[in-house]
Specification:
Blueprint lengths: L2 H29 L18 H20 L6 H27 L3 H25 L1 H6 L1 H20 L1
Helix pairs in contact: 1-2, 1-3, 3-4, 4-6
Length: about 160
């Protein structure tokens, strides 16, 4: 791998992981206080699982982002559109943490996470048109967010 591409890979992964770090500023304090008092559905995983899962998902997202960003044969219009959609889903991801954990508002967070799921789907489709392996790297993310949609809805309804 050339130095230029290695730099792009590092930047892409760091950008995605930073989204997780920003979200964690809202998540960590709430996990050990407000979130503990919520009624959760039966399928709710233990709290410790979230950090390693999200760290891994952000890593996969960063690699997918790199694969699209560094793709030499992709049309500039298609690549720009795919990167814009990806940026929107990153913003919705951070916004969900702010709404759910920061504002303690599962109802509003539910609407954000549905928009996030749709934006991830749009990212998968747009990445797939450019380079399928990049789209495949986003599949664990959309599967996890699908589960998170269920958790968010159940927590909203139970509380």
């Amino acid at each position: 791998m050339r130095i230029k591409n290695l730099s792009k890979l590092i930047i892409a992964v760091v950008v995605c992981e930073l989204v997780g770090v920003v979200g964690s500023f809202f998540t960590i304090p709430a996990i050990s206080s407000w979130y503990l008092g919520l009624v959760k559905p039966r399928l709710s995983p233990p709290n410790w699982i979230f950090a390693p899962v999200w760290t891994t998902l952000f890593l996969l997202m960063g690699i997918a982002l790199f694969l699209i960003w560094a793709r030499p044969f992709a049309g500039p219009k298609e690549r720009k559109r795919a990167l814009a959609i990806f940026g929107i889903q990153l913003a919705l991801n951070v916004l969900w943490s702010i709404i759910f954990f920061g504002w303690h508002n599962p109802a509003a967070a539910f609407f954000d996470i549905v928009a996030l799921w749709l934006a991830i789907l749009a990212s998968v489709i747009s990445f797939g048109k450019i380079f399928r392996p990049a789209a495949y790297l986003l599949l664990p993310y959309i599967f996890w967010v699908s589960f998170a949609v269920y958790l968010n809805f159940a927590i909203w309804r139970l509380n």
